[in-house]
Amino acid sequence: MAESRGREKQIIQERIKKIENLRKEGINPYPNKFELMDLRTHSINIKEEFTALKNGENSRTKKVIAGRVTIKRSFGKLSFLNIQDLKGTIQTTIQKGECPEEVIKTFKKIDAGDIIGVKGTVTKTKTGEISLLAQEIFILTKSILPLPDKHKGLKDEEERLRKRYLDIIMNSEVKELFLKKQKFWQAVRNFLQEEGFLEVETPILEASAGGAAATPFETHHNALDTDVFLRISMGELWQKKLLVAGYEKTFEIGRQFRNEGMDSEHLQDYSQMEFYWGYASFEDGMKLVEKMYKAIAITTLGKLEFKAGEHIVDMGKKWKRYDFETLIKEKTGIGIYEASKEDIMKKLDQLKMEYDPKVDKWRLVDLLWKYCRKSLSGPGFLVGQPVELTPLAKRSTKDPRKVEQFQVILGGSEVGNGYSELNDPIDQENRFNEQRELKEAGDSEAHDHDETFVEALKYGMPPACGFGFSERLFSFMMNRPIRECVAFPLMKPEATSAKDKKPKKKK
Length: 507
Hints:
By secondary structure, the protein is an alpha+beta fold. It is built from 14 helices and 18 strands.
């Protein structure tokens, strides 16, 4: 380890010396722009255009490329640079007698990790490698720190996430992951806009954390001298106020925040989409959502089937309906309406599931459901949820103990939630009051009472369906933990001193 650090220190010193020498020669190692940028008509991924070339043949076609040097090699009169950009990697050849002397001089000043521009002719080497024979080389950025070892890469997960830029440079799969993520969200946006939905923006800072059962982040607004919260939903109550205003179809894609635990499926800061559809019910919502998920999969993956953990999910299959009450009864023997809180705690103990004994019965019922869902591959919809768990949804006309809610089930988890929106202001106010009592009793995830929303409902909101999902759906499609699907996830600060690294003593 000490030897490795010593070698890195030596490399850094050598590179700083090169930078100093370049400046003395009147060469800026960090120019303001690439002078041939306008001629850079190709990305590095130009190999397919020249596959017809014979081995050893030079097309004499001039191209301009730019990117990062990942490998530098020399074999006598022949030298090579591998240059990488967003689309791929190409080999650049520097050969004595074929390239200008200035190119050979510049090559000696280049290190792996530098960003350079190259103008040259496309050739196919004797071994069949499409290459660019350099006629001009431009140093665009000198790197000081060496790239990780090409074969070892970044093995430590924490280091990969802290230095994600290096992870992307060294790992083409990670680079492709975030290109797919852009396709994913663009597919969502395109689908909804084609279905006639209007994209809107709603506040991130709110006076009341409404629209979901979650623990918010709290801060203080100095100018207004009031406490505010980072939103825990994608503007649910705001979008429903827009329904009151007369907008019949709206959606928003943005960031939301929940001050809760982290695991392979949950983060505190993540992207979410929610839509609200006037004059539609949860049955209409299920039809639209199934169609949307299939469109997203085709655009993102090019197919409808993918692996999520131990589950194989085929969204082309018939989507099932899972009844909340029936499923829990089948898998645990608990009748959720007849069982007492003590009965449910006893069952959770048997299942070795952790729980907070202070929360109300229905929070414990939700934990039973979380146990049951693990075996469901989907695709399907969970329906028949108790009204106590969803205070913003309309009661079922078939069973008033339940709500008209649907949750998308894929890979043993919920990856989407929607319902027929409650638009009865009296029922809504009563449910908010019940939630207030739960919050006062210690339930940090109970809904806040939003009087402004109830007031808006009293003016009249049309019947509607609302639905939302987070980027967890993307992580399921990629079969990766959600933290790996975020370019720069929030991390604990690194220890900066030996004192910081010492484990804290237990009190």
